[in-house]
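re: ur question from earlier - yeah i can do the single chain one, its not a big deal. heres the input i used so u can compare w yours
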Amino acid sequence: MSWQQTLKKALGELQQEERRLAGELSAVQEKIQKLSNMSTSSGAAPARGRPRTKAKAKAKRKLSAEGRAAISRAAKKRWAKHRAEQRKKTSSKRAESS
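and the output i got, formated as tokens:
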């Protein structure tokens, strides 16, 4: 067999292989297309969990001076009541023990 015949045979085999691979490629592309259509159709299951979005930072709440003063007065009033109750308990215990 001459080198020209060998070259023609090799070329024929390569062309045959190219056609086979082209068929496989088209089959794979069809499968990819079907899968991508399935994932975007309305019948697809919704994604689970929270959506991937950047969380917006909540604005920091500010307390007015009047609000702070009101909270302070209420806390002082509660503690004064608590201390008065404690004094009553300790003075009544002293009176009982004497």
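Residues 68-98 form one domain. not sure if urs matches, ping me
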